[in-house]
Amino acid sequence: MTAFSRRHFVSTAAAGTSALWLAGSRTAWAAAGPVPTEHPDIDVHERTVRDAAMTWRTLPTGWQEAPFLANGRLGAQLYAGTTANTLKLMISHSQVQDQRGQWRGGIGFSRLPIGYFTLTLAGEITAVDWTLDLYDAELRGTVTTTRGSLAFSALVHNDTGALLVSTRPTPGEETAAWSFQWLRAATTRTSGRPEDYTPNPDPRTGDGFVEQPLLAGGGWTTAWRERREGTGRLLAAHLVYRFPGRVSEATADALRAVDRTLATEPDRLVERHRRWWHAYYRRSFLSVPDKRLQSFYLIQLYKLAASTRADGPTISEWGPWFPEVGNNWTAVWWNLNVQIGMAPIHGSNHPELDSVTGAFRRFEHNLPASVPADHRDGESYALGHPSDWQLRAGDTYDVGAPGSSHVSDNFGNLTWALHNVWQSYRHSMDLSVLRDVVYPILAKAINFYAHFLHEGPDGRLHLPETRSPEYANASDCTYDLSLIRWGVRTLIASAQLLRNGDPRLKRWQDIERRLAPYAEDPAAGVMIGKDVPLAGSHRHHSHLLWLYPLRERSWDRAGDREVMRRSMDHWVSMQELWHGYSYATASSMYSSMDEPEKALDFLALFTDLNVVADCAMTVNTMYREGRNLALESPLSAAQSMLDMVVQSHEGVVKVFPSVSERWADASIASLRTQGAFLVDADRSGGATRWVRVRSEAGAPLTLDHSVTGRIEVRDAHGRPLRWRETGPGRITLALPRGATAVITPRGAPRPRTVPRDVPSNGTWTRWGLPE
């Protein structure tokens, strides 16, 4: 097909085929069905993402079942309204929060409810047929009632932040219309709410807007308009938040934004929106035979881009959505949640989502406030939680001090979060990330710990009592020691790389050399801390951080294996109190320990909608703990899948290191590793057919290629490259910046190194409510 006919096909298919939709109409862009992915002119990236679409044939009743839309800031979910003839479109925004810092972050900087649009229909709803098309980031479908039906499309525009909903009713539903209901601007958090807490005042309402002031100043405005053409309607809504500033300015800006949106042809807006999302999915590729898991992975990529962007807020527990029922976690949690939820952005090659690095770049100045006043020496940082997206935990809250009367589980938050930023450096080799973010902040995070290290009779440096998150207090707590050890080793290596003559280097080297070892049990492995064993089920892997993700010990070193196995076996033997992320983390740990079957088993246990400890994956791949929404568990399971197909650690890139025998085929493209390598590979019939590695930074490459037998190594043009074997299945070669190496079995025909959607190993059920 010509380029013109290709574009015409895709735009026609995405718009649907219903004659009710009029080309060029101001209400026209809309839907009536998915793009036919069997068309030969649709490439593999588009086909696999569209095939992962979520579907609803049953009306969802709340956030645990509903489709979700967002652009990293404004979020929306559609589900049943309060009556049989209504739908509720709940909206929320990741920047809309309170600003009363006199209280701890979860209250004083709490995310605040906004409101919802109600679509009122003439008849009672009898059926729905909805599709959340991940590739276009649009929700499309029909609603059938006792009086007729209504077709619709909805999106949160990637660039402008507009909520757009286009509707077209059949006869009998011509009166279907939208209205807006504001929600009280008060924290929904009950834990720790002070007695003198006062909700923010009621809003001022006007023609097409709700202006919500804050007691602390500023506020936000939700504005909307409908454009009608015949019986069709196009709803456009914007939300503008101002703090500091005047809420009247937010109102003026929101109303202007709505007018601009409605003055623009809908097709032009939609084309811009789709262009971003289509490019997003082309940055990497992963296909496995389990199509339900493949779909799950792609939904998590969609969820990540919907939740956060590098220039915006990092993920809170809700992301940009508001859970109408179950909403106690009103801010940003740093003792595990952000760290594991944001982990997949690196391997999936999505640095444009790196809001963790962005947060530390922009808001480092807020970190001293979490340090106790007695230790604010200008050279110490800490990070309390919950905080807001600007790293503020509340004016009157600090993390406390090891060995004091105020011991919290917050001491390691900052160092662990900086491990995520360090991963950004290692996956990009962008020296500015190391020099300007990791190094200066990590130095002050470790300096905070260094205040409390003391020399014992054994000559070792010991840490007084701290708290292993969610378990127990202990001296020489493994959680904190592991972060200190990683931190000083990273600082030492960074100082040598940066050649900055840092006078603190000798102190870091002394800490690295003399830091106390982890307390161990001969049978149970590494303990919580000195004299504190892991005596019961523990959902948090805090005492195993050294194993994963810090990977202080390596399965490649035979001397490390025994303690890794003992420690892992003991933790896994007590799963009664595990939550979703416990299973995802166990999967990743087993992948790092050459246990692919166990890795897949634990991933399947979590994603098969099993209920554990009153927690479960939901049908829309959200996750509930009790009644609360928490994003990090399913996102961390996406990292579990990445750990199966590519790993990079200590300068070694591993291809298909932990792929189950149940996955005879797999295909990957542009997965990013440490050293700034992009890896493509294909596995067929249980054997690796080819591997391609592209270097963005010119770092030395040591590669576990997983190709059986003798190999050939060639460049992108088929010319032989020099390499040397450094172990079974492992080679080392120089790969300059921009160069490519292709590894194949010796004598095999030159492969067509393109990704493919591998065959399914069985039937599968779509996510959503497909029946």
What would you note in describing this structure?
Residues 302-611 form the Glycosyl hydrolase family 95 catalytic domain. It holds the Pfam family Glyco_hydro_95_cat. This is Glycoside hydrolase family 95-like protein. Residues 1-30 form the signal peptide. InterPro entries: 6-hairpin_glycosidase_sf (IPR008928), 6hp_glycosidase-like_sf (IPR012341), GH95_cat (IPR054363), TAT_signal (IPR006311). By secondary structure, the protein is of the alpha+beta class. Helices cover 28% and strands 23% of the residues. The chain is built from 17 helices and 35 strands. Strands 11-12-13-14-9-8-7-6-1-35 form a ten-stranded mixed β-sheet, covered by helices on one side. A six-stranded antiparallel β-sheet has the order 15-27-28-29-34-31. α11 (431-450) packs across α12 and α15 runs parallel beside α17 (632-645). The protein is globular and about 80 Å long. The two termini are 37 Å apart. Residues 1-24 have low confidence and may be disordered.
